[in-house]
Design brief:
By secondary structure, this protein is an alpha/beta fold. The protein has a single domain (9-170), classed as Aspartate/ornithine carbamoyltransferase (Rossmann fold, 3-Layer(aba) Sandwich). The chain has helices at residues 22-41, 63-74, 92-105, 116-126, 154-170, and strands spanning 52-56, 78-82, 108-111, 130-132. Helix 1 (22-41) packs across helix 5, helix 2 (63-74) packs across helix 5 and helix 3 crosses helix 4 (116-126).
Amino acid sequence: MPDAMIPNLQTRGQPAFEQMSTSETSALIAQARALQRAAHAGTTQPLLKGKNLGLLCASDDDADALLFRRAATELGAHVSHIRPSLSEASTAQEVAHTARMLGRLYDAVECQGMPLALVRRMGEAAGVPVFGGIATAGHPTARLVEQLEGGSRIAENRRFVLQASLLSSIA
């Protein structure tokens, strides 16, 4: 299911989703549609098998955390919950050290409920994709849900868009 046309958002940093070109957006939607068709046919593949993702948030039973976990694990990834200890008041050294450590442990990190400036600082040092609420309704990819057709509910379509986003950044 991976497609060479899917944008590699890993190398473009956190603002990549906000700055996607029309062709990148189309490729992401095409990937989400392919994932949607596979799910409906019962042929979802473990495309993220062997990947370890960190979920940095206060509560891992929040709806956004559950969406992230489900989207990633359906693709074969392992997701670990990490309680955040950094804040905007954290020193640059603390942020960099923590980000580098997370980058050694995980293939990507999702940060929920954290200031975007802090997430960006972490992303600069981690060496892996660091997402700022990619599973939240306020993330730029959430607006792509409307472009998926079919009888899927909005929540299901959000999961497919999230999965396509993860694949474009991690796989």
